[in-house]
Amino acid sequence: MMRAISLLLAGVVGGCTMYPEKMGTPSAGDVEAVQAEARARQEAMDTSHQLTVEGDALVARDIDRSIEKYREAIRAWPRAPIAYNNLGFALLKRGETGDLFDAHDVLLIAAEQMPTDSRPLYNLGVLMTRLGRNSEAYDLFAEALDRDPNDVGALTGIVETAQVLQRADELTLEYVQRAELYLATSPEWGAYLARQRQRIKQELQHDYKAMLDDNS
């Protein structure tokens, strides 16, 4: 009995198998099934992509049809992150009763499926500003900028939200200065960003002076 166990262990340690009858190559039917599954998956992805493109083309002139196209794209292929993101954008744009809550759900899915893309988080930040949840909006814009430090939309979003919150700290000042790199010459944004930079610097100086007075 011990010799049989020793032989079995030797077979395992030596990389051999004691049960060669369990090994084998896929049958022709198995290969065909795998290939058919791959074709079906690719067809679903292609259909989803085409429906997303059609939805994009409709956003400006027929928002309802655009939303339906994005929903069809998701039904065709549930792992279609751009369709989720663009559906969220379209729902934000339409803004009917219930649209903001639906947008929240699909944008969360997009953010999860697009872990390096700033757009879903930016759109979620816009959504939170619509709901008056500005602290959450600030954090979402900040997360978007962690993914893409050059996302101008997220930069302007976080600066405007900081103004609403009357937030003045070194990180917010950095966001303002980064936004100025892109928009300092903009008639719409240049003067506004300069005012925000000045506001934050003055508040930081005031806080610093107050701290010195407390320590004296």
Query: Structural class, please?
Result: mainly alpha
- First-last Cα distance: 87 Å
Q: Secondary-structure element order, as H and E?
A: HHHHHHHHHH
Strand content: under 5%
Query: What's the total count of β strands?
Result: 0
Global outline: elongated
Biggest sheet record? none
Low-confidence parts lasting 5 or more residues at pLDDT below 50? 2-17
Detailed description of the structure:
With 216 residues, this protein is mostly helical. It is built from 10 helices and no strands. It has helices spanning 2-13, 28-58, 63-76, 81-94, 99-113, 119-130, 134-147, 152-165, 170-183, 190-215. Helix 2 (28-58) packs antiparallel against helix 3 and helix 7 (134-147) runs antiparallel to helix 8 (152-165). The protein starts with a helix and ends with a helix. Mean pLDDT is 89; it is low at 2-17.
List strands and helices in order, with pairings.
Layout: H1 2-13, H2 28-58, H3 63-76, H4 81-94, H5 99-113, H6 119-130, H7 134-147, H8 152-165, H9 170-183, H10 190-215
Helix pairs in contact: 2-3, 3-4, 4-5, 4-6, 5-6, 6-7, 6-8, 7-8, 8-9, 9-10
